[in-house]
Amino acid sequence: MRAVVAMLIAVLATAARAESGLWGSFELSAGTYRPDIDAEFSGTTAPFGGAFGTSRSWQFRVGASRNVFTGYGTLEVGVAAGYMQASGHAVKLDGTRSSDETSFKIVPTSVHATYRLDVLADRWGVPLAPYARASLERYNWWVNDASGKRVMEGATNGWSFAGGLAILLDFFDPSLARELDMDSGINHTYLFAEARKTKVNDFGSSKSWDLSDTGTLSYAFGMLFVF
Amino acid sequence: MRRLLLLALLAPVVTLPQTVPDPTPGSVSFANELHSANDSFINAAECAGGTVLVQWDIENTATTITSFTVYAHNRTSAHTEQSTGACPTVDQDGGDTALRVGPIATFDDVAVSNPNGVTEPSAEIGLDAAFIVSVAGKSCGATADEDIVLCVQANNNGGTARGKVVLSTRAPGKPTAVTAGSGSGALNVEWTAPSGSPQAEYYVIEAAFDSTTTQAIDPSLLGTVTSGAVTATSHRLTGLVNSVIYRVRVYAFSTADNRSVGSDDTRGMPELANDFWTAYKAAGGQEEGGCGFGSAGAIGIVLAAAALAVLRRRS
């Protein structure tokens, strides 16, 4: 019973505190990624796998969004950028690996629109905020050879849709959340996880490779700060 | 005639690649070691018949200097590069029983040895390293680093300049566990640093022709390829020919540029290999590179414009 009362007080305190105004959000995320470049080839031909193996690489992103609607939930538009690197070895003519290194690096950038259903905490005390996001993606990439020289660079465009669930951390420590708002203007802090469907192949261009993730969906997690 | 003789003496020195840093007033500076910017050493090669480049700046320039004498002595508690007054000139000078000292050279023509005048540093002067060592009572076979002081005495006005040079003739141990991985026109060489003293300051990798796997290559056209100074324990040695087997050896160098004996030979063969992009295109990949905006750019602009319109309406 005492726990329920304490939780109720915490929720009420969260709702009743004098928050600073809302402008938008900032987020950090991490996930794994592997471009589907080898899907272009048939049989055992797999230049990406030959150079970089079968493992997935970490991809990190930062993003900032401006809210454009806060009536029922929040609609935001924003931009994001990230970094991913695959390091491997050059391939000899007989197909075996050379000791020479080669790397493939991507700086993914995007513009996106996000709708976050963040009314659950305020109205019903449920610290969850499901969200959906649509993005236009532009993957800026380059390939380095063993000497570190950039042998080719380019950019590949596409889109992605993501759905995720954000957990409102304020719920677990309202006083800390209040202090954070007073000190930094961050109103809410969320921990989120999302699933994303990407298609990055210059919208099917015959002169483009496919930088979509090899998986049907890719997954990421991160922190979201609403201010 | 004397000037011509002195010029002839200095001529070979001027061609040396080392450059002496400017001395401060009252000091003697020495040529930097090739790979150690702020250290002054007499290393094994110099002690075996090489030259030490020096430059001095006499502190007392009240009167015109007509000649200089350069003395070398061991560094004792009573006589160091920080000492003042006239240079010691004889063994045990001033009751310093440990002192070993003697003249190295005298320069009578200031137009050569100090061409910029008495208020400026001298010209770069080449001095016999082995002679400096023996006059200071040291040996090129010293098993530890030894300090030697050069003291330059202006003979007619008492001004002096002093500086310390370190006799360091020991080399590091040889690098071990050398491997030479195949690269494209290159070998990726790795090794283990030697232990013990002196430490290895840098390494040089040498790849010499061993044999060839194809008759299309004329061995007479293949020389030995040597790296520059490498401070890491791995290096990609480039400029090699694919399908040629090389004998690879790594040398360690001390701060004083003393070279170790070579590592045990290992063999490696560069082979043609494709980086990821080359392999992708060789496999028939359709990507062409470059930064086309495509339709995504237009859609992005429309989306951004819509967002701005919404923001403006709200405000």
Order of helices and strands of chain A: HEHEEEHEEHEE
- Radius of gyration computed on alpha carbons of chain A: 22 Å
Tell how many strands the DSSP assignment of chain A holds.
Answer: 8
Low-confidence stretches of chain A: 7-17
Query: Reading side by side through the largest sheet of chain B, how are the strands ordered?
Result: 2-8-7-4-5
Let me know the average pLDDT of chain B: 83
Rg of chain B (CA only): 30 Å
Label the overall shape of chain B: elongated
Mean pLDDT of chain A: 88
Largest sheet of chain B: 5 strands, mixed
Structural class of chain B: alpha+beta
Helix content of chain B: 10-25%
For this entry, give a set of tags.
heterodimer; A: 227 residues; alpha+beta; 8-stranded antiparallel β-barrel; 4 helices; B: 315 residues; 5-stranded mixed sheet; 6 helices; disordered N terminus
Q: How do the strands and helices of this protein lay out in sequence?
A:
The complex is a heterodimer of chains A (227) and B (315).
Chain A lengths: L1 H15 L7 E10 L13 H6 L4 E13 L4 E19 L4 E20 L2 H6 L3 E17 L5 E19 L5 H11 L3 E13 L17 E9 L1
Antiparallel strand pairs in A: 1-2, 1-8, 2-3, 3-4, 4-5, 5-6, 6-7, 7-8
Helix pairs in contact in A: 1-4
Chain B lengths: L1 H13 L13 E3 L10 E2 L1 H4 L3 E6 L11 E7 L26 E7 L2 H4 L11 E4 H7 L10 E9 L5 E8 L8 E8 L2 E7 L9 E11 L12 E2 L7 E5 L5 E10 L12 E3 L4 E2 L1 H7 L11 H21 L1
Parallel strand pairs in B: 2-8
Antiparallel strand pairs in B: 1-3, 3-6, 4-5, 4-7, 7-8, 9-10, 10-13, 11-12, 11-14, 14-15
